[in-house]
Design a protein that fits this description.
This protein is α/β, with parallel strands linked by helices. It has helices at 6-11, 13-21, 37-44, 48-57, 69-78, 101-115, 127-139, 158-169, 182-194, 204-225, 240-251, 286-294, 320-334, 344-353, 376-385, 420-431, 442-452, 456-466, and strands at residues 29-30, 34-35, 65-67, 86-90, 119-123, 142-150, 173-178, 197-198, 231-235, 257-263, 314-318, 361-364, 389-393, 403-407, 416-417, 439-440, 469-470. The strands form 5 sheets. Strands 3-4-12-9-10-11-15 form a 7-stranded mixed β-sheet, with helices on both faces. Strands 7-6-5-8 form a 4-stranded parallel β-sheet, with helices on both faces. Strands 1-2 form a two-stranded antiparallel sheet. Helix 6 crosses helix 10 (204-225) and helix 7 runs parallel beside helix 8. It is globular, with a radius of gyration of 22 Å.
Length: 476
């Protein structure tokens, strides 16, 4: 009988992943720490046109872009003379499951069907579960969604519970768990027991699915305004949204600046039972955004295809109260009621627009559906029930886990820049010292330059600070 203890299942992790994803990640590895990301994306995925065709078969993609005239006017009210860029939004809520995650799920489920798997499994508390369930229903595959729903007191956020209902509506089996390391254990065990396909968020299939978003966006904006947008803002959590969108923009030849945006939840630990219900956003926050930017291979596959630091030009944060404010403003000024997490990038865009000239253009690249548990009222009620103070005032006074400050006016919305060089240093540290590797090759240095979107001098300086030496392979 197979040993299914926690330690034994985790020890079989690589074999389980290889069987359930159909990718041997080791073939792309070289040097001491490096792997060929571009070759992995090319050899294990599909071409852009193939993905567009796959997505078209199940009604995914080709979502509209709207210009937000009233929010642009409001931003200009608080901007300096001549400032206030035009704001557009790509309405990804128009996808079958209500978010851009349908793009990721479409290719993963198609690949599962092509390889002959009878079902798919995903571990997520976000919109991706519903996306996989929706696509599995369309392709006639079984689906299991493993969700981290509750703290140890069995209290669950209304937004996550809402997403569980949506998965079940598509016919998926939903396994709800409490916060903790058991999630990954359960996920591996289910993959092994069922023989289903691992529809991970982070495979090349998933990330390549998002490339169509960036590609479409560029083509649509050229049709609307005759050129590419100056800035594209992406809500950043696990990194796949920004990575896929940026790669799609590049495939279209667009040179737009790519800005990541996350809600500031600094100080809250996402794997902590105590902190689990002290956040009002289940995704799009720094609790995911920062660690997955600086250490993307912490995901559920050996090498994540979501690597945002390679593509990010700027990374900004904002308060929870600011996102609630802009969610209400979007509904009341533009007639678009959309879920709050997708509006993280809109809150950032509202502030960024005030930095740019009036003739410049900024595009928010996603929205998400909303529903009973995702509306503002249930989320704020849940926050209050968990001891979070609700205040109307200056969002700069917000303390994650202590209060939510709803701005008194749109003029109080603000963003803060994260130091990209600090994130780059963390990435280099995580991939060397963090893995007990203190001696690397010149090829590894080249890899780190690509990983951090920096240059050779920067990487070598950081390596010296960390005490990591560089040795030619033939000198070992």
């Amino acid at each position: 009988m197979k040993d299914n203890s926690y330690q034994s299942v985790l020890a079989r992790k690589n074999d389980i992943m290889k069987t359930s994803v159909g990718i041997d990640y080791s073939q792309f590895e070289y040097g001491r720490i490096a792997f060929d990301y571009d070759r992995m994306m090319k050899e294990t995925g599909y071409s852009l046109e193939e993905i567009r065709q796959i997505q078209n078969e199940t009604g995914v993609g080709n979502t509209p872009i709207f210009e937000l005239h009233n929010l642009t006017r409001l931003a200009r009210k608080y901007a300096a003379p001549g400032k206030g860029a035009r704001i557009f939004v790509k309405d990804e809520a128009a996808n079958p499951s209500g978010s851009f995650k349908a793009r990721r799920a479409a290719t993963s489920v198609y690949e599962a069907k092509r390889l002959g798997f009878s079902g798919v499994i995903t571990a997520t508390s976000g919109n991706y579960g519903a996306a996989v369930a929706s696509q599995a229903a369309k392709r006639g595959l079984n689906c299991i969604v493993v969700q981290e729903c509750y703290d140890s007191h069995e209290k669950g956020q209304p937004e996550i519970i809402e997403k569980a209902r949506k998965c079940e509506a598509y016919g998926a089996e939903v396994i709800q768990m409490t916060v903790g390391p058991e999630l990954f254990y359960k996920f591996l065990l289910l993959l092994e027991e069922t023989g289903y396909f691992n529809a991970s968020l982070y495979t090349p299939f998933g990330i390549a699915g998002v490339e169509t978003l960036g590609y479409e966006l560029a083509l649509q904006m050229r049709e609307k305004i005759g050129r590419d947008p100056d800035v594209v803002v992406c809500t950043n959590a696990g990194g796949g949204n920004l990575t896929g969108t940026a790669r799609g923009l590049r495939a279209a030849g667009a040179k737009s600046q790519v800005v990541g945006a996350s809600v500031d939840l600094s100080g809250l630990h996402m794997a902590s039972d105590n902190d689990f219900n002290l956040k009002s956003f289940t995704t799009g926050h720094t609790g995911f955004g920062v660690p997955f930017t600086t250490n993307p291979d912490r995901s559920d596959v050996p090498r994540s295809a979501g690597r945002p630091l390679r593509y990010m030009d700027r990374y900004v944060t904002m308060s929870q109260g600011s996102v609630f404010f802009i969610t209400e403003a979007l509904a009341q000024l533009e007639g678009l009621e959309r879920g709050p997490a997708g509006n993280t990038s809109l809150a950032a865009a509202f502030c960024l627009a005030q930095e740019l000239d009036e003739d410049q253009v900024i595009v928010v690249q996603e929205t998400e559906y909303t529903g009973a548990g995702k509306h503002i009222n249930p989320q704020l009620t849940f926050a209050r029930e968990n001891g979070i103070e609700l205040v109307i005032g200056d969002p700069k006074d917000e303390i994650p886990g202590k209060n939510i400050v709803l701005p008194t006016s749109a003029g109080r919305l603000f963003i803060e820049d994260l130091d990209l060089n600090k994130l780059r240093r963390s990435s280099i540290k995580n991939q060397t010292v963090g893995k007990n590797v203190l001696d690397i090759t010149p090829a590894d240095v080249d890899y780190l330059v690509l990983e951090t979107n920096s240059d050779d001098a920067f990487v070598r300086t950081v390596l010296a600070e960390l005490g990591v030496s560089i040795t030619e392979e033939n000198q070992r």
